[in-house]
Structure formats: C-alpha cells, structure tokens
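Bug: token stream looks shifted between consecutive jobs. Job 1:
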Amino acid sequence: MDLVWIGVITGLIGVAAVAYFVRYVLRQDQGSERVREIVGAIKEGGLTFIHTEYRTLAIVVAVIAVVLAVVPDLGWRVAVAFVFGAISSMAAGYAGMNMALRANGRTCTAAQQSLNQGLKVAFRGGAVMGLTVVSVGLIGLSILYFAWHDLPDFRFLFIIPAYGTGASLVALFSRVGGGIFTKGADAGADLVGKVEAGIPEDDPRNAAVIADNVGDNVGDVCGMGADLFESYVQTVIATMTLTTIGVVIAPWVTDTLFPGLPAQTALQHAWWLPMLIMAGGLVASVIGCFLVRIGEKLEMGALLGALRRGTLGATILAAVFSFLVIYFLDASLGLFWAVLAGLAAGALIGESTNYFTSYAFKPTQEISEASTTGAGSTIIRGFATGLMSTWPPIVFIAIAIVVAFRFGDFYGVALACVGMLSTLGVTLATDAYGPIADNAGGITTQAGLPDEVRERTDALDSLGNTTAATGKGFAIGAAAMNSLGLILAFAMAVGIVTVSATGTLELPPELSLLSMPIIVGLILGALMPPVFCAMTMKAVGITTSAIIDEVRRQWREIKGLMEGTARPEYGRCVDIATKISLRQMLLPSMMTIAAPVLVGLLLGKFALAGFLIGALAAGLILAITLNNAGGAWDNAKKWIESGKFGGKGSDAHKASVVGDTVGDPMKDTAGPSLNIMLKLMSVISLMLAPVLMHFDGLI
C-alpha cells in the first residue's frame, strides 16, 4: 500500500473536524438585530474585497501559467501544478475568512453569557481556518504525488515546486493587499477618531470603523492563512526535492538516513516521511483544538494558559507521532532529533515573541511607562524592544539548524521545518482567533452592549493581540527554515552544491563564497527587504490619508452625524480602502516575482544563490523587528487602557495610540509580507532550476 493514502485519510479527518467546528459556530446565537446589522456590513465588505482581489489574481495566475506552459524546460504539467496551488490557497483562505466573518457577531453574543463561551466560539471559528489550511494542503500534495511521482528521470522533482509557487503568489497578494487594506483603515479610524476627534475606539459615528473590522478579516485571517498555507506545502516540497537529489547523487543518503534499504525504497520512504509527519501533526492539532477552555478570570495569564494547553498538547502528540513514523519507515532515529529540533524551535520562538509583545511582561510594560513622557518616548522604546527581540528567535533557529544538520544533514534541516509546521492546524487557529475577538469587541461597542460584555471582549482581544504576534513570530521562523530548505534544494538542483560520498556539502573547485557573482547577489538580495517594506508601508500611508479625508468629509457634510442622529456612509470607506490597496499591492508583488528571474537570467545561477541568501538574512532580522515592535506598541496601548498610567483619555494613552498607529503597518503589512517574499523568491528559483541548470547568465 502506498502510505500517502494515510495523508489523504488524515486530510479528510481534518475536513470532518472543520465541518464539526463550522456546525458548532453556526448554531450559536447571532445576537440582536443591531449586532446582525453590523455583522452584515462587515461580511459584505470582506466578501467584496476578496472577490475583487481574486478576480485580479486570476488574471495574473492565468498569464503566468501560459508562460510556464510554453517554456520548453517546464511545460504543461508545471503550469497545471501552478494553477492547482493557486486554487488550493485561494480556497483555504476564502473558507477560513468566510467563517471568521460569521463567528465575530456570535462571539460577541456568546461573551454576554460567559468569558469561556466567548473564547470557545472565537477559537473554534479560528480553528476552521487552521484545520482547513492543513487539510487542503495535505490533500493537495497527495493528489500531486499520485498524479506524477512515477514520471521517469525524477521529473516530479521539478513539478511540485510549481504548486508551492502558485500558493505563494496567492499568499503574497492576500498578505500585501489585505495588509494595506486593514492597516490603512485601522490607522485612519484611530487617527481621525481617537486622536483628532477624541471619540472612543469603534465608535459608530466614525465612518471607518466597518472598514477597520473588514480589514481584520481580509488581512489577519485570509492573509495569514494563505501565508502559512504556502509554508506548509513548501516545506514538504523542499524535503521531497532534497530527498530526490540526494538519493540520485549521493548514496550516502540511503546508507546513513535509511540504512539497509535499497535506493528506490529509501527514496519512496523519504518521500512518505514528511507527508506522514504532517498527517500525525494534523491529528495532534485536532486534539489540541479541543483542549482549549478557561474559567471566568479576566487575566492574561489564565487566557494564555488556555491556548498554551492546546498548542503544547498538540506539540507533544506530534513528537510522539513523528517518532512512530520514523521508526516504522526504517529511517535513522537521528531524524527524530531533527524533527524535535524544529518542534522545539517553533514553540520557543512563540514563547519569546509572547514575552516581548504581551503586556503581562516587562518589555511591553516599559513601553507603556515611556508613554507618560510623550509619543517620541513611545516610539523610541518600542523600536528598541523590536530590535532587542530579534536575538532569541535567531538563536533558536540557528540551534535548530545545527542540531538538524548534525543528525540528518541537509535532509534533516528540511525535516526540522516539517516538524516546526506539523502542528500548524492549532497554531494557526490561535492566530485566526485574534481578529475574530477583535471584531467582537468592535461590534460590542457599536451595538451599545453592557460594559461587562466589553470587558470580556477586551480581555479576549488583548489575548488576540498576543496570539497574533506569536503567530507572526512563528510564521517568520517557519519562513526562514523553509526558505533555507528551498535555497539548498535550488543550489543542489542547479549544481552549485554537490554532496560527497561521506555526505559533505561541497562547492565547485573554481568557486568560493567570496566570488564576484555571489557577493553581488548577496548585496542585491539584502536590498530587497527594505525596498519591499518601504513600498508596502507607503501604500498604508496613502490609504490612511484617503480614509481620514473621507471621514472628515462625512462629518462636515452629514448633518447630525457627530450628534449620533445620522448614520455614516460606511461603504464609502470600504470602497476606498479596497481600490487603493489592490492598486498599491501590484508593484511590490510584481517586483518580488520579477527579481529572482532577472537576477538568474542576467547574472546567472551563482548570483541568484547569493541573492536568495542575502534576502533571507536581511529579511529575517527586519521581519522580526517589525512584527515584535508593532505587537508591543499595540499591547502597550492595551495595558494603559486597562487603567494603568492614567487609563483611557490620558496623555499617556494618546501617546500610546500614536505608537500603535506606527506599529500597525509594521506588524500587519510589511513584516508578515516579508515572509512570503522570501519564500516566493526561493520557490520561483527552484521552479526555474531546469532553465538555469546549464545557464551562466547574460552578463
């Protein structure tokens, strides 16, 4: 029996769990007429944005697919895999966002009963996103495997990266477009409402509040889901690709990693291994999702403990399943330590991100204290916190790479990323929970519900800010490990790196790390992340200005609006944010697609390898800094709003709002989008390996 069928069956188990959670959420009370009206406006705006974005994306996907189909060294199979990857990613993101749009109002209503019920509804709404991503990913990879794994000359090796490329393209559009929308609307609503007019957050008199709520869903649910979907599938792709190359060119792979097995059997087991580890992780994630529950304490520690119970429980189960898979596939038990290194690194990165961004800990509390002396102090302390927060995840990633390489060489490094992402179902559920809770808090205020309900939704929202930052930290770590595996696969596929009989990675004799092509590539690659961030943050600024102008116009022209006797034109802000964000996302997206192609064609494969490494090093540091500084600023504001340093309306609070506004595009647009940029450039390079294999560039 081909054991990939286990992946299909497990994927279907995940689908069944998704159906259960969907049914559970949809059976909950939708709330009052006013709550349903607000939810309807958010849902309409979210679906309008995503439909418009997907129509634009469909044109880009079709054009690229035609190009791939006519390139002689690629062909129609690569084009089909590319389109299939794009469709899979769009389907997963759409399903998760659709559920989030229906769970927000129900969470608000559930919080009227109890804190535990509100958490349960919000988390299970997020679990739909998490489990949909892993189920679709596992089933999609299985379909590709069954369709083409037995092609001669290992042509399957150059087809599966196209699946990841299609998923990456969708992720980039969703993350960049959704990020520009959500942070443009959020910053505009905060600046014109809380800072300029002095009205509360989510005040229904602010025409931008619905656009802000819509943005939480299109950016933080659909965008994050697409981001981690591509990480999920690409880590399996990198592992399979490295396996194929290693078995073909280095008998050491079979002798050491799968001792005693014939080469063909070892290759098959090495293909099965990442798929089955992911299958075990999916089952562990389903169990972990059912472990999340809490009492009625409005304390961050208790709320974090509830989610930590689910994620750590899933991690332990995934480790056990991984050991069993490695044992029964006759693989070296050293590979288990590689998987465990990835699992541990993922958990530790999440904890370090939590430490630097949660207001339960000193770094964020110090930012709140700095706000008492003005916005300038807030910005300085927050950015310093973001920079300081880079060292733990970098060290954890480095240790994981060393351990994985020690026990499994290049295959172990790729497998460590498989371990890190094996529990993605529950990890992404905790992240997608955040925007649902955020929406619930906004709906509570707009619907005029009692103060105790807002206290509960605020507690859930504060937890959501932390889980969102933790999820982004996890995504950054996964992107780094994933990109490294893809870069190594590219280097081996085009012959830059070879493997000796003893398993040592070697460069060609005529090439050194200080050669001109690699140095030029490194410099150009390091340039990409800051330019990309500049483009996306400028786009947020343009959107913010347009939103502010529109809200001011409505306050001037609609009589009775500020007195609460007239209704704002919420749809106008949604339309403005949609049009500007979709227009502004095209340039950074096209730059990401074109850059590796141009470097490879003009400067050659050696320069492209340096380019990818330079982008990875610079992008990793920048992504962690932006993510954690933004998350810390956000929760510093929440800490003050809980009553510290003067509470809401104080000078410290106003300074913290400025810090949060600066941090929003950093943590929700530029930072997370860097993950996708790094992975997309790496997988495009791997997909183009057949073209670049015997090509040294035009210059």
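Job 2, same session, no restart:
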Amino acid sequence: MRQTALTIVLSLLCAVIHAADVVWFDGSHPITYSIPTDVEPVVKVALDMWKSDMLQVTGMMPMASSKGAIKVLQSKGSADGFRITVKGRQIIIEGHNGRGMAYGLLELSRLAGVSPWIWWGDVVPEKKKRLTIDNNFTTEQQPSVAYRGIFLNDEDWSLRVWSSTNYEPAPSGTIGVQTYKKIFQLLLRLRANTIWPAMHEGTTAFFKIAGAKEMADSCGIFIGSSHCEPMLRNNVGEWNVRERGNYNYLTNREAVQQYWIERLQEVKNSRNNLFTIGMRGIHDGSMEGYRTEQEKFEGLQQVINDQQELLRKYIGDPSKQMQVFVPYKEVLQLYEKGLQVPDYVTLMWCDDNYGYMTRLSDTNEQLRKGGGGVYYHLSYWGRPHDYLWLTTTQPGLIYNEMRQAYDHQVHKLWIANVHDPKVAGYDLELFLDMAWNIDCVQGATLTKHYKAWLTRQFGMAVGEKLFPAMHEFYRLCGIRRPEFMGWTQVELDKNKYNRGLSPVSDIPLTPQEATARLADFEHITAIVRECRDEVRPELKDAFFAAIEYPVCAAAAMNRKILCDSAESHLAYEEIQSLTLQYNQLRGGKWRGLMDAAPRKLPVFEDVHGHLTGESYNTIKTQQACDYQSASEGTHIIEMLGHSMKAIALPKGGTATYQFNIEHDGSYIIQTALIPTQPNDNGDLRYRVSVDGKESVVYSLKEPFRSERWKTNVLAGQAVRELKQQLSQGPHTLKIQALDDHIVLDQIIYRVEK
C-alpha cells in the first residue's frame, strides 16, 4: 500500500514538473518565432540554419509570427554574447550583437539535440515529437577570447581537392565560395568568428574568389591572414614577380606598398578585417634583400612604421584597427632585439608546430592594449615529420597549453591550424569551446568533456561504451602518432635521401613491445566495430568518419609497419579500402577529402620496418598521478601523456613516490615528462632525489629543431635517466619543479645491464 502511495506521489510530482515546462514544439504545429526586421546579415544566415535544423528535428519548417514561441532580439552587452531566458510561455533570445543573436539561435539548436557537426560530420539529429524547456531556464554566455577561429593550412590533400573536384567543381586549386560558406557556418555553430583562409601554393587566393569576402561579411566572419601574409595579401597566390618585381622592401618598396594599398582600398568598407603586420619572404622565408640581423631589424621596423601610415591613410586610425604581429621563427629574435610594435597591436605567440607553446606574454606584454594571441597547430607539414592524415593531438595537451596561454592574459585571438575542419573534429571543438568559455573544462574533467561529446554525437549508450576505446586510442597515438610509426623524418639532406625523406627501416621496438601495441589496437577496434552495429542507422556514416576510420586506419598503419611482409601488405590494402569507403560516404559527398598518403611520404608506402628495440629489464612503470604526496597546487591533466593522467607541478612544488626493490643492485630510474617549452624565456628544470640523498638537476630545455627536441615531440615524452645503487626494500623518490611548466608523466624503474 505504501509503495502504491509513493508511486502516486511521484507521478503527481512528475506531472507538476512536466506542467512547468514550456512547450516550444507540440508535435502538431510548426515552431513559431519572431525576429526584428532590421538585423545584421549574420542573423539571417543563422536563422536559416536554425530553421533547417528544426525541420530535421520536427519535420516541420518553423514559421514567423508576431507572437512566436521563440523571440529573438538585440540587447546591450559584451560583443558576441547572448542570453536565453523563459518568460511566460516564450523563449527569449537576446544577442548583444549580430553574432550574439546568431549564437543564441544556434544554442537553441543544441538544446534540441542538433550537433554542430550536422553537416560537416553528417550527425543527423534524432526526430523529436515534443520539445520543452524548463520555465526557469536561463543561460548567459559571452566569449573568453575576442577573436576565435581557424587557419586553413596544408589543404593540398584534402579540402582543396574535395572542393574543386567534388563539392563545387572549379579550376584546380580553387576552394569555392560555397565551400567557404559551409566553413563559416561551422564556425558559427562552434561559436567562432575568425578565419585565416587557405594560402598554399596552388590554392586560389581568397580575395580572387568571387563573392568570398562578401560571404564572410554576411556570416559575420573576420578575415585575417597568416604570419607571413601582411595586410590581407596572399603572397603565394597574388605576388607576381614578373609583373611587380622582387618582393623586396629594400629595393622595391614602392611596388610592395602599392600591392598592400590595393587590398586596403578593396576592404576599406568592411568592418571584419584583421590586419597582420610585419613582413617575411613570399612563402614564409626570411625577408628578401636584408643580409645581417641588424639590417633585418631595421628593415622590419621600417615596414611596421610604414604600415601604420598606410592604414591611417586608407582605412582609418590604426589604433582602432585589429592588427596582429606574429613573432615567429627569426622574427622572434628581431622582436626581442627591441623591435617597436605599437601597443595597440596584438602580439600573437606560436607553438613549436607540435602543440607545445614556445613563448607567451611576459609581465609587461600582458599589459599591452592590443593584448595577446596564440597560433596553435592541430596539423602540420614539416620537420621532423608531418601529421596531415589524422587529427590525434591529445586533448590534455590542448587543454594544458591553452589554459596556460589564457592565464598569461592571451585573450585577444586564438587560431587553430587545421588542414581540414572535418578531420579536425573533437580537437577543434575543444579548442574553440575553451576560447568561448575558458572554464568549460578543467584538467581533471577532460574525460567528462570528451565523453559528453561522444554521447552527443552518437547517443548515450554508444557514447558510454565507446569512450574507453577512444580514451585508449588517444593514449596509443600519444605514444606514437600514426604518421610517425615509420620512425622516419622529412626535410633531410637531399643529397643523402630521396626528396629529403628517410625510408622506413629500423623500428626501435622489441617484438614484445610491438605485440603489446598491436594487441591494444586490436582490442579497441573490436569495441569500435561493436559500437558501429549499435549506432542509429542514420549515424553510420558519421560514426565511420569520426571514429571507425581513424581508429581502424591507425591500427592498420601499426600492423603495416610492425608485422612481417604478408600481414603488412594486407594492412596496407586495408588502409586503401578504408579510405575508398570514406570517400564514398553519403553517396560520394566527401569524395576527394580523405587521402591515405598526404605528400606521399615513405611511412604511407607498402612497406614494413625491422624491429630493433633493445630489451630492458623493467621492473615497474609508475604513473605520475600515483604519488604518495604532492605540494599544494599540483593538478592532474587527464588525457595527456603516455599515462593519460599527467600531473603539473607548480614552481617549487614536489611530488613524492614510494617504490620497492626486491634485490640489491644497480638500477636506472627514468623520469618521463611532457616535452613542454619554457615559454617564459626561462629554463625547464627539475630535481630528482632518492631516499633524501644528493639530488640531481635536469633541464628539458632544448634548442628548436635539435635532435633531442625532435625525438621528444615525436614520442610525446622527454626522458632523463638517474643511475642508482639500491638495496632491497622500500625507497622514496622525490621530484621537485625548479621552474614553471614541469609536467610529469611516468617513472620507469629498470635494472641496469
């Protein structure tokens, strides 16, 4: 009797709660909305996107009404921010500008179950018979970073091919205006607002594509340009040496200035401009005509000064224009030599191309009116090795580096380098989520964030089952990216190596290590294929592109390299088959997007390696997070390192570990750390001691492109060794951070041979 009464009470309570919900789709009538007639074009773009979303979710196209269930309006507030509230039986979306109104509308799509990857990821939303919202619902959002977006770079083997041969056929090399429209729409869904357009040799320059800039303006997207493309010019595609002479500011200044003036006159009536200043060679080389460092310093200073005057003359007060200066490669040395960059210009810092920030704003730079920016690679072409096939940067690395950047007051501009937004997937969304709301994720909640992404994309049951396999996938790729499995390098001596590429040969793994790695991949591919059978039928293609292809192709790459000839060849054929399947998804929608061998590097060939690893007597591998004690301020970073749970130590902080030795003898204690950079111009030192004995100090600081730096970034670890005579029994290991940016991953104990 008591149980029946309780059931009745609960039913009544649920009915009351249900009655309190505001119904914005009842299953019988289209959703209604009202919107001001005089809005920015981006609002109309977002409205069309939202209406299309609702058609897919409800089966009915929303209708305009003076008293719509959804009311969109503009109110005052921070740029790009929005507020959603419920008043009476109406949902109110208040945007603080056009983009804010757009983001608010697309937030409502998210609330209806629409993924931002509805088009690019083919994530078909689930049909709904009813849409409700709590009558107390409210959300107020605003960006943590002012300008947030992507740089389309190294597009040669994916986006450019797909666009010009498939999505909107055009002369070879053209990424068309409709392709850019789809990219801009994705950026709006990801609450981004900025793009550096594609610029590689062979790609049609953005401003040569009819209607491209107008399309960007209509979508509220700011157009900028990379570190080597000043004043919105694409030198590779737009500077003609035969017509204009050498791109040399020392000997051909008037022609170079006229070249810049042409673009300034072209964009003077557009508000959405980001002007990169400074100068490099035509395609990221050193400035032409200047020989010594002092000459380059003086020449670059003259360029910057002249550019301010050009902006003043053709655009307006330069202090009111969004300007960016990127101290990259030798330009950083010129900047640190005393280059005078106006205070209102944003200083944009870069990673080392492999995800580790090399420099951030110091105390004085953090006070600059122009603030700071960051240029971050999620894909890369160059030495020691490209990674242009799959996107496998560990989420923990993105979090750690971007959180540090933000904490150094880098709040003005975040740009992620991607060769293709579709393939960038979760990593790109995490990057832009943090740019939108820096507190959306913490080091200790990354797994929660990723699991939420998986369940949003593929449903709760599949997401929960899939998560452990994808977590393991990121661990294995953190140990060695698929593109790095040949232990090969690029841009070597062309007299010694064909095309400057070393061949696949010796693989420094033992048979036991190779077998274990292959078994781990086999395990996760089995889970992925089980999940494939359980995903909703309309999500099969989305699942294949985002999950099955990268996991199964990476597993096949490992088999191709690590197995003998017969099995290696089968793995090679599997990669070709998987790639063909990818390019046939959605009836050929993505034909040309996926290439199984970007740049035709040796690692992608039908070859295998020879295992040459030296066998060690490892007695224990201890994860850094399994400490006995640690200083206040020590924090865990999930999904980072070989352990997938690295720990960041504050400067001066210590972590203590207990370990046991069974026999007296000589041992090697390896400390493995994340190969971060001393981005404050300092050092990267830590101290190791055993049982309170005399400590040893190590530094992880490495010259850019040194051999040890190459080894570190390819392996995702920097390892130092300590030899010790140890007696049988328990021992204590203490590690102390002497500088900032010390992130511990693992401790490996081995018997010395």
